[in-house]
Design a protein that fits this description.
Blueprint lengths: L1 H10 L7 H17 L3 H17 L3 H17 L3 H14 L4 H17 L3 H13 L4 E2 L5 E2 L14 E3 L15 E3 L1 H15 L10
Parallel strand pairs: 3-4
Antiparallel strand pairs: 1-2
Helix pairs in contact: 1-2, 2-3, 2-4, 3-4, 4-5, 4-6, 5-6, 6-7
Length: 203
């Protein structure tokens, strides 16, 4: 999915967007590329997003972009260099728990990579202070998912118009959606997700 998102973001006509939307698009592209293993390119894109956010006085985006830069650096194997932007992102995103949780996770990863176990533990404990989970007796973070863990089968849509159309059982469960509508919804959701607690598992 990161590859699909990166492809869409790379093809967007950013010239028609306002400055904040352009910065958000760059930031999202850097995030995707960092998690695709294209870390050097991700770092450069993230640096550009940070510069533009700072120069354009886009204060709410500065912390977000710094967090993405720190994440890209950590995933690029530059954990030490990634700590400063992640710490700055955490300081500037007080009151935005979703971003704090994400940045705290990668800060913990950076410290763990550098052998700074106490600092890594402190980063995890931020999740505990926000009541997102509890620490088990051996230090693992335990999170209860709550009651809303199921899927919503009536909200399942598949882009129609590809080579696999005749292999899909179209109906109430597998509903068609156009490529244009998918991209519009995807970009809105990507932007909105930065305001939420979002946890990802890559395989």
């Amino acid at each position: 999915r990161y590859q699909q998102a990166a492809d869409i973001l790379s093809q967007l006509n950013t010239a028609a967007m306002n400055e904040a939307s352009q910065i958000l698009t760059l930031n999202s592209l850097a995030w995707c590329k960092a998690h695709l293993g294209e870390t050097r390119e991700a770092v450069e894109i993230a640096r550009g997003a940070v510069r533009r956010a700072e120069a354009g006085a886009e204060a709410p985006l500065v912390g977000l972009c710094r967090g993405t830069l720190g994440t890209a650096l950590v995933l690029a194997g530059e954990a030490q260099e990634g700590i400063a932007p992640l710490e700055a992102a955490i300081q500037s995103n007080r009151g935005r728990p979703a971003q704090l949780a994400c940045h705290a996770y990668y800060l913990a990863m950076a410290n763990w990579t550098l052998g700074k176990m106490d600092e890594a533990q402190a980063s995890l404990e931020r999740a505990v202070t926000r009541r997102e989970g509890v620490l088990a007796h051996e230090g693992a973070l335990v999170v209860r998912t709550g009651t809303h863990t199921g899927r919503a089968p009536n909200d399942k849509f598949i882009v129609k118009g590809g080579a696999s159309d005749d292999k899909i059982w179209w109906g109430k469960i597998n509903q068609p959606i156009s490529q244009e509508n998918f991209e519009r919804i995807y970009l809105r959701m990507t932007a909105y997700s930065w305001l939420l607690h979002v946890f990802l598992m890559t395989q």
